[in-house]
């Protein structure tokens, strides 16, 4: 016995499609709020290279199993999700959501079709339960959009307060402990509200930089809050080793020393290596005493959980399809869900998408085609799901490379170290070296005690300005300081703040004060653990040190490698910077740099 249930509802919202899309696309959040229990997912590799995903879950007293289909969507325009049931009262399921821009907002069409089987399926359709469940999800989406509108456009509290009284008391104590810091207090209130009210699926992988954007907060302040919450036992830290294709966290560990060199992604059927610049991300989740999160899936690989995927659609074997696709300028990657080749493309301001051709061995972007249209040619002998992903996903990722250069991380998480003998490649970091001019003479003229106090005060002076500008003091050696910065512009600002602050530091000192030499260079290196500290080694570090040795007292030397960053170069506006170069042993080309003397 077979019967078909069809659903169709329209809603209008006074918001543009890009405002509404995050809520209609977040199927996992909608399913949790609707009371759907999590399900278990197993992935099996098929002979054609595609991964088959078999899910098992409960629906009331029934145990259901189904094949989770690969969805199709274009961000801000449409979404299609499919399932093929292997047991239970349903055989096929398809849900579709389409967004249409209109004057003053957008119209959203919700539609779906379920193939019911047997008497149980017929009863489900006749009783109206299928329509009520569909209506419930539409109502939840409406409510979430309304909550966001009432909260300044940000996703607001989605549920009631879910904290148990003991957890609430402990979190209130955390707020009280931060009462002396207005910025932290404001962000801490937002964090506690998120922990208390957000659906569990939202809390599984909290990304501080994403939340900083939503909260309108300074990124470093948000990161420091999360690290402090981890130190106080509120949040668990997770080092995620992301698949470079699907960006899914296929391996998670709580300590840096547990992070392996690589992992396997069963969804993409590839082995991949650890890359601190691209695919190692630090995320957080509440400790179990705060909230116990549901185990299992609520929607596998939908646009809500893969926001970097802007487009995904199937193209049959030996066929061509034109898709309406408009994306903002920027770097994108073309690939397929199935294991295989990928191709990168920079979309220009004219919006002309390239034609895309897939053969058995490669994916190739051809000459740009029509504005707002993507032509895909599948010249293989099998159907493929094509993906267009935004390669700027790392902007909101607290990557391993970024976080280990942050002062808050080194201060609050000193136990997070690489295992002995391990080293990781750091794609780019800016290194600062400073040294005291004539330090030997200081000890001779002042005596050990007075000279030591001066050196100690100068370390505090340096550390304060390094940390104020987002850098971390890595180590000191004698009178020298080595610091690291993720952002080259921050490194330049710190160097100038140190240089400009020396006169005030020296003013009124009976010991005569200090004269500093500062060198900055940027490049790749490796990070290792030495003497229970995360340290940097490599050519960039050696070059920064040797550049500092070229300084006269009171000077700052900044290599052109640092000033390749536009923001770093702009920081020198209004400063007299003399272009210079020096030949260093072991470097084939002269090192070009800018020499800045003290301000008059």
| Total helical elements | 17
Name of the level-1 CATH class of the largest domain: Alpha Beta
CATH fold-type name of the largest domain: Alpha-Beta Plaits
Helix content: 25-40%
> So, CATH architecture of the largest domain?
2-Layer Sandwich
Which regions are unreliable across 5 or more consecutive residues at pLDDT < 50? Answer: none
CATH superfamily of the largest domain: Nucleotide cyclase, GGDEF domain
**Basic shape:** elongated
Number of E strands: 29
Structural class: alpha+beta
Largest sheet: 12 strands, antiparallel
Rg (C-alpha, Å): 28 Å
Give a description of the structure.
Helices cover 30% and strands 36% of the residues. By secondary structure, it is an alpha+beta fold. Strands 1, 2, 3, 4, 5, 6, 7, 8, 14, 16, 17 and 21 form a twelve-stranded antiparallel β-sheet that branches. Helix 5 packs antiparallel against helix 6 and helix 8 (208-215) packs across helix 9. It starts with a strand and ends with a strand.
Summarize the structure.
This protein is of the alpha+beta class and 600 residues long.
Task: Spell out the key features of this protein.
alpha+beta; Alpha-D-Glucose-1,6-Bisphosphate, Chain A, domain 4; eight-stranded mixed β-sheet; 30% helix
Draw up the topology in text.
Layout: E1 2-13, H1 17-25, H2 27-33, E2 40-45, E3 51-59, E4 62-68, E5 72-74, E6 78-85, E7 90-102, E8 105-117, H3 118-127, H4 129-150, H5 165-177, H6 182-197, H7 200-203, H8 208-215, H9 219-231, E9 235-242, E10 249-253, E11 262-265, E12 270-273, E13 280-286, E14 309-315, E15 319-324, E16 330-336, E17 343-347, E18 352-358, E19 363-371, E20 373-378, E21 384-390, H10 400-403, H11 407-412, E22 423-436, H12 439-446, H13 448-468, E23 472-477, E24 480-485, H14 488-506, E25 516-530, E26 533-537, H15 539-548, E27 556-559, H16 560-563, H17 566-570, E28 577-582, E29 591-596
Parallel strand pairs: 18-20, 25-27
Antiparallel strand pairs: 1-8, 2-3, 3-4, 4-6, 5-6, 5-14, 6-7, 7-8, 9-10, 9-13, 11-12, 14-21, 15-20, 16-17, 16-21, 18-19, 22-24, 22-25, 23-24, 25-26, 27-29, 28-29
Helix pairs in contact: 5-6, 8-9, 12-13, 13-14
């Amino acid at each position: 016995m077979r019967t078909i249930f069809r659903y169709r509802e329209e809603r209008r919202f006074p918001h543009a499609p890009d405002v509404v899309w995050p809520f209609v696309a977040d199927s996992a959040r909608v399913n949790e709020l609707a009371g759907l229990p999590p399900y278990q997912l197993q992935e099996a590799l098929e002979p054609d290279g595609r991964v088959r995903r078999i899910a098992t879950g409960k629906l009331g007293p029934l145990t259901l199993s189904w094949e989770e289909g690969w969805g199709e969507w274009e961000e801000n325009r449409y979404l299609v999700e499919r399932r093929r049931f292997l047991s239970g009262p349903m055989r096929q399921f398809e849900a579709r959501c389409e967004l249409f821009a209109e004057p003053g907002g957008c119209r959203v069409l919700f539609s779906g079709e379920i193939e019911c089987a047997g008497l149980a399926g017929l009863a489900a359709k006749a009783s109206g339960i299928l329509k009520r469940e569909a209506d419930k999800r539409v109502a939840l989406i409406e409510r979430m959009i309304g909550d966001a509108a009432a909260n300044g456009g940000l996703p607001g509290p989605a549920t009631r307060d879910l904290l148990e009284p003991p957890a609430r008391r402990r979190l209130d104590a955390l707020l009280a402990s931060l009462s002396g810091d207005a910025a932290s207090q404001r962000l801490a209130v937002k964090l506690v509200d998120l922990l208390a009210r957000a659906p569990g699926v939202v809390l599984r992988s909290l990304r501080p930089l994403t939340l900083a954007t939503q909260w309108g907060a300074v990124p470093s302040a948000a990161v420091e809050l999360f690290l402090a919450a981890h130190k106080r036992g509120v949040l668990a830290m997770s080092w995620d080793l992301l698949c470079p294709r699907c960006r899914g966290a296929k391996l998670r560990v709580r300590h840096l020393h547990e992070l392996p060199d690589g992992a396997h992604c069963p969804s993409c059927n590839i082995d991949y290596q650890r890359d601190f610049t691209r695919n190692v991300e630090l995320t957080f989740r509440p400790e179990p005493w705060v909230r116990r999160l549901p185990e299992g899936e609520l929607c596998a690989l939908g646009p809500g959980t893969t926001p970097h995927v802007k487009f995904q659609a199937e193209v049959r074997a030996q066929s061509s399809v034109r898709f309406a696709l408009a994306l903002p300028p920027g770097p994108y990657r073309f690939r397929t869900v199935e294991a295989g080749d990928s191709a990168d493309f920079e979309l220009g301001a004219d919006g002309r998408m390239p034609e895309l051709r897939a053969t058995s061995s490669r994916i190739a972007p051809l000459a740009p085609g029509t504005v707002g249209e993507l032509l895909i040619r599948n010249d293989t002998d099998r159907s493929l799901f094509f993906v267009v992903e935004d390669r700027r996903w790392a902007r909101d990722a607290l990557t391993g490379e970024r976080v280990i250069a942050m002062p808050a991380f080194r201060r609050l998480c000193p136990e997070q170290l690489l295992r002995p003998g391990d080293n990781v490649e750091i794609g780019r970091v800016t290194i600062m070296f400073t040294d005291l001019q004539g330090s030997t003479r200081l000890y001779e003229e002042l005596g050990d005690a007075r000279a030591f106090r001066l050196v100690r005060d100068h370390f505090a002076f340096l550390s304060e300005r390094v940390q104020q500008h987002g850098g971390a003091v890595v180590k000191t050696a004698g009178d020298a300081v080595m610091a690291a910065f993720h952002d080259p512009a921050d490194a330049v600002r710190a160097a100038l703040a140190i240089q400009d602050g020396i006169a005030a530091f020296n003013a009124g000192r009976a010991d005569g004060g200090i004269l500093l030499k500062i060198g900055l260079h940027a490049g790749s290196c490796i990070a290792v653990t030495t003497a229970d500290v995360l340290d940097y080694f490599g050519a960039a570090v050696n070059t920064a040190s040797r550049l500092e040795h070229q300084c006269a007292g009171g000077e700052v030397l900044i290599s052109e490698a640092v000033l390749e960053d536009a923001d770093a170069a702009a920081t020198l506006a209004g400063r007299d910077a003399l272009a210079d170069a020096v030949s260093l042993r072991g470097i084939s080309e002269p090192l070009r740099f800018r020499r800045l003397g003290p301000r008059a």
